[in-house]
Amino acid sequence: MFYFLSELPEWLKQSGYAAWADWLSPLRVFQYITFRSAGAAVTAVLLSLWLGPRFIAWLRSVKLEQDYEDRARELGNITGPAVSKKGTPTMGGLLIVGVLDFTALLWAQWNAFIVLTLIAVLVLAALGFYDDYVKTFQKNREGVAEVVKLVVQFALAGFIAVYLWRVPATSKLITDVMVPFVKPPVLTGAVVVGIVLAVLAIVGSSNAVNLTDGLDGLAIGCTVIVAFVFLILTYIAGNVKVAGYLQVPYVPGAGELTVFCAAMIGAGLGFLWFNCHPAQVFMGDTGSLALGGALGIIAVLIHQPLLLVIAGGVFVIEAGSVLIQRGWFKWTKRRTGIGQRVFLMAPLHHHFQKLGWYESQVTTRFYILGILFAVLALGSLKLR
What is the distance between the alpha carbons of residues 154 and 117, in angstroms, rounded to a whole number? Predict the structure, then answer.
């Protein structure tokens, strides 16, 4: 919305109001993505900090609170100070998504990429909200059936992938497959492979962030780190000169996703203020499904879906630990009649809790790991 202010001086000049045009010429600063990204980040942080206490109080007033203890501590053998999480408000993702969408609409120049991303975030947030609602008000700790969530996620991801393929301007985002550390596409005209990769990137990222959301500040902190990586990548992808110099795919219009990433960073940092240990509010599936899906969509839109595996390494490890644990348990039970576990508990952050790590230790060390993955992802820009 603010972008249109940059066009006001030129419009006044063409309308014969040259004096007013000169006086309002500083408004041209709104045409710069860097300026609007900074504005989006600051706006999102301040808005989150201002709304946070009021929103948490509202969640408590309508009884949107977690009605069970920390899952890992319930199962026992967890050392460290016992901090009860029962009664902590959940569905904090409503605050994140609300601030993120409002800020992005305010500071970004609306184009197909921004609209597509915002709509997808809203759909996934609605899915997560329904899941949280079932858990909170219907007292069903399992929430919505996994198959229902997967159907919605795959349908949304499939729609995005097919839409990008069918539009001539974005078809190569699907048909040409890019691999990190390699300059040219490894496959061209690979429609089926491209659609599958795009769908898996979106669905996998959404669920991976959801699985990581198990400790105070863990998921949102790691999301901010990955969003910072994509802040840089989207700016490069949308700048024809920089993209050409680094020999990465140039995607017209992708630069506006930089503003979206900045808004995500700001909203994430503002939420982390209240979500750090001991958490005053949890994001719930409302936030984790939406944020994870957003990262996957952005990776697809800048033609780097596989780079998300590196940038979001923590999420990949967390999701991988669950898949390994479930797969090994089922396989050994089928063979021996007794299911065996690879980890003390999955997702992986609970495994380290069972080993005796404090919750804050696990979170901080996963942050460090996330930063290392972020550096590696950004290093792929030159190691090609």
Answer: 15
Q: How is residue 135 written in tokens?
A: 């858990």
Measured between alpha carbons, how far is 118 from 120 in angstroms, rounded to an integer? 5
SS3 category, 63: coil
- The amino acid occupying position 106 is L
Compute the distance between CA of residue 371 and CA of residue 368 in angstroms, rounded to an integer. Answer: 5
Sequence letter at residue 157? A
Partners of 65 in the beta sheet? 89
Cβ of 192: how many Cβ atoms within 10 Å? 9
Cβ atoms < 10 Å from Cβ of 41: 24
pLDDT digits (tens, 9 = 90+) for 301-329: 999 999 999 999 999 999 999 999 999 99
Q: Which of 272, 300, 233, 261 is nearest to 107 (CA)?
A: 261
- The tally of CA atoms less than 13 A away on the side-chain side of residue 203 is 22
| CB 307 within 8 Å of CB 313 | no
pTM confidence score: 0.92
Q: What is the pLDDT of residues 190-212, one digit of tens each?
A: 999 999 999 999 999 999 999 99
DSSP result, 165-214: HHSTTTTHHHHSBP-TT-SS-SBSS-HHHHHHHHHHHHHHHHHHHHHHTT
Strand partners, 187: 177
Find all residues with CB under 8 Å of 48, minimum gap 6, and list them.
95, 96, 99, 266, 267, 269, 270, 271, 273
